[in-house]
Design brief:
The chain is 46% helix and 21% strand. By secondary structure, the chain is of the alpha+beta class. It has a domain of 166 residues. The strands form 3 sheets. Strands 3-6-1-13-8 form a 5-stranded antiparallel β-sheet. A 4-stranded antiparallel β-sheet has the order 4-5-2-12, with no helix packed on it. Strand 9 and strand 10 form a beta hairpin. It starts with a helix and ends with a helix.
Length: 508
């Protein structure tokens, strides 16, 4: 394989790997691609209350599962004096509180945080067993009404979905008109969803109740809402038993899908559960990191986030260096700008990030001019190169210290940041420009000096861009794509932009 083919292959591997890992972290781990992105997070509190009767107590509460669009990022349980365990029954998690004996009013809490990553969507996977409700005891007249409703709905429908819709509409009309012959006996405490489930089961349609909460901001002591979910032979569909409308309401979080009940209490009476929730907009990156306990989040666990905060700050700056290197390659390969040193502009740009641009340019220009003047004097003393560079370095340090003191006395705090300039690089830059002056004249020094300054300014603008800083820190694998691009640029051997001006007279 030729060297050119190897470069293309490596570039393809690096670019595809960098972009692929970035897309994975965005789509699977929900890390934001833009800075300042916010994610809505609801803090939900489920409050269970009941009256204890001085008997052994067992409280059984259905727990929600993380959903694709509403993952649970944190949960906590509070019940002093109670034993606690979480059991899994099929697809359902249930919290179990136990206590040998208690009396009086009892209160248990379950708190969780839910993030929103999209709109509510109904589950599509069928359950293995549909809910079989406890059969209601109806009078002969009510039995006749049930059969009539099922017959009418069957005549007005064409498939299970339309049958369920028509049956619920007929049921709602009957319950609103026929108060004396209602199918729902208040003494049995049956909800409208349970009553509709009875009719659908009687008609042979697999269905169960879906319990959940409608997420909103600053809501207190709300009951759980009940919807119906039926299987039409192809997929599960959710329908509202009160309106007969299909689909989940907006911001509806499914708490329990199927199952006998949301809450069961043994050893107590007058039990109830109420929900309160409040919404907050948090940084999307923080929410993704809060959800990093998932086994699929290994890419986050082995990332820069696992380092101490002090080290993270260092790498946040170092990860910008490849961006500056890309700028240098673009300017030198495509435009043809000559610089003093290959990547000295990148180091100068990093210094500008600490001193601000205008202050940094002024300091750099001042130090280089004074250093060149001192270097020209030292060259007359016929010193060795090492001694000459060391002398320039010492003078530069003394100049920086003197300027710092003077700026402090004058109240110019930005000037105090000049200590961030790489002193050794400054010394070498002054030495290189001095040699260039002796060999090629002052014009070449001006060209290289101005070229270095221009590239450093562009690199500074690129490295201080908020989007660039966000991507390099949160998606460092994108630097693989930058490496691939630089490899491709290394194969370029065409004309540079400045050569249009060099050969302009020849064209004329």
């Amino acid at each position: 394989m030729s060297s050119r083919a190897q470069v293309y292959l490596l570039a393809l591997v690096f670019i595809s790997s960098g972009i692929g890992l970035t897309l994975y972290k965005r789509l699977s781990l929900n890390l934001p691609l833009s800075p300042g992105s916010l994610t809505r997070v609801w803090e939900v509190e489920a409050k269970v209350t009941f009256q204890a009767t001085q008997q052994p107590i067992t409280v059984d509460l259905a727990l929600p599962q993380s959903q694709d669009d509403y993952p649970i990022i944190d949960e906590a349980f509070a019940a002093p004096g109670y034993g606690f365990d979480i059991r899994k029954e099929g697809e359902q998690r249930r919290a179990i509180w136990t206590r040998r004996e208690a009396s009086g009013q009892q209160t248990l809490y379950y708190k969780l945080k839910i993030a929103r990553h999209g709109a509510s969507t109904a589950p599509s996977e069928p359950l293995q067993i549909s809910q079989i409700p406890d059969k209601l005891i109806w009078t002969p007249a009510q039995e006749a009404t049930v059969n009539t409703l099922i017959t009418q709905a069957h005549a007005l429908s064409a498939d299970p979905s339309s049958f369920a819709s028509q049956l619920l509409k007929l049921l709602n009309e009957h319950e609103s008109i026929e108060r004396s012959n209602s199918l729902n006996d208040p003494r049995q405490g049956v909800s409208r969803a349970n009553l509709a489930l009875q009719l659908l089961t009687r008609a042979g349609i697999g269905s169960h109740i879906v319990r959940g909460i409608s997420l909103a901001d600053r809501v207190h002591n709300e009951d759980a809402s009940e919807l119906l979910e039926l299987y039409d032979g192809h997929k599960w569909q959710i329908i509202d038993p009160l309106t007969a409308n299909f689909g989940l309401p907006d911001d509806f979080f499914i708490w329990q899908r199927g199952g006998d009940s949301l809450l069961q209490v043994e050893g107590g009476q007058h039990s109830k559960i109420r929900f309160s929730f409040i919404a907050n907009d948090l940084p999307a990156k923080n929410v993704a990191l809060m959800n990093a306990q998932d086994p699929n989040s290994a890419l986050i666990d082995f990332n820069i986030y696992s380092l101490p905060v002090e080290k993270q700050a260092v790498f946040k700056l170092l990860l910008l260096v490849p961006i500056g290197a890309l700028v240098v390659v673009l300017f030198r390969v495509f435009i043809g700008i000559r610089t003093s040193g290959t990547f000295m502009p990148v180091l100068v740009a990093m210094a500008f990030m600490q001193t601000t641009l205008l202050t940094g340019v002024g300091l750099l220009t001042t130090l280089v001019i004074i250093g060149l003047w001192i270097r020209s004097y030292l060259s007359q003393l016929d010193l060795l190169m090492v001694s000459r560079i060391a002398a320039v370095l010492i003078v530069v340090v003394m100049l920086m210290a003197a300027l710092s003191v003077i700026s402090y006395k004058l109240g110019l705090e930005q000037m105090l940041n000049m200590t961030f300039f790489p002193m050794v690089i400054l010394a070498w830059t002054i030495e290189r420009l001095s040699i260039t002056w002796e060999e090629d004249g002052a014009r070449e020094v001006a060209v290289q000096g101005l070229g270095s300054l221009a590239v450093a300014i562009v690199a500074y603008l690129a490295m201080t861009n908020a989007l660039v800083g966000h991507l390099t820190y949160n998606f460092p694998e994108l630097l693989l794509a930058v490496l691939g691009i630089i490899l491709l640029l290394g194969q370029y051997s065409g004309y540079r932009f400045n050569e249009l001006f060099r050969f302009h007279s020849a064209i004329e």
